[in-house]
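Async update (no meeting this week)

Hi team, since we skipped the sync, here's where things stand on the single-chain job. The sequence we agreed to prioritize is pasted below, unchanged from the tracker. I ran it this morning and attached the output directly underneath so nobody has to dig for it. Comments welcome in thread, and please keep replies under the output.
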Amino acid sequence: MKYDVFMQRFAERVGVAADKAEVLTRATLQTLAERITGGEAEDLAEQLPPELREPLQRPGNTAAEAFDLDEFVRRVGERAGVDEELARRATRALLLTLRDTLTPQELDDVVSQLPEEYRELLRIDYDEFMRRVLNRSKAPPDRVEEITRAVLQTLAERLSGGEARNLAEELPEQLREPLARPPEAHGRPIGLEEFLDLVAERAGVDEELARRATRAVLLTARDAISRKGYEHVLAQLPREMAGLL
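Output:
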């Protein structure tokens, strides 16, 4: 992944401007380097854009420091000069963006050196899913749940029944019903414009909001599910859908 793409995803997930995102990224990577072994930090750096490797530099034989998540967040906040809530969001955003960037094996290697409480940051519950869709779509707060369901229902029609079920299993339980389809069902060849028309009709919104909401739900699904699962979803969508992302 290129540096600008990495930073764009990180900044969007944290909800900060580009200049603040750079400070937070470096602070979080430096803290992560302290929490994993020097050898693992070297392996991680090799899979990141060159611009992000410097904060990870440590001697290869350096042992990992055994500190908990609260201490991790405290160090990030101290280095970046931000409060605890923003430092925690940055920590989660980094782990999610690393999930987008690293090979599955390298991600497993990094996560295996972290306690379970860190891994919980990679899980997104229903409230967090809705918050991200709201922030990304700029939908009316009292309509965001209805609009999200409309997008998921339309997505389910575009996917095979088996793929819709796999997606549902990785999402928060409250979001599974709109994706329910018989396992043997075939995906309907819906193009982007028809997809947006269906979302707009089902949610009772205009096409512009339907477009923003579709993008928001797809991006938030990317945050919530495994990279392999997301790639399977994208493989069944029209190529023009990539333009939304």
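Quick observations from my side:
The longest helix spans residues 18-35.
The mean pLDDT is 93.
Reply here if anything looks off.
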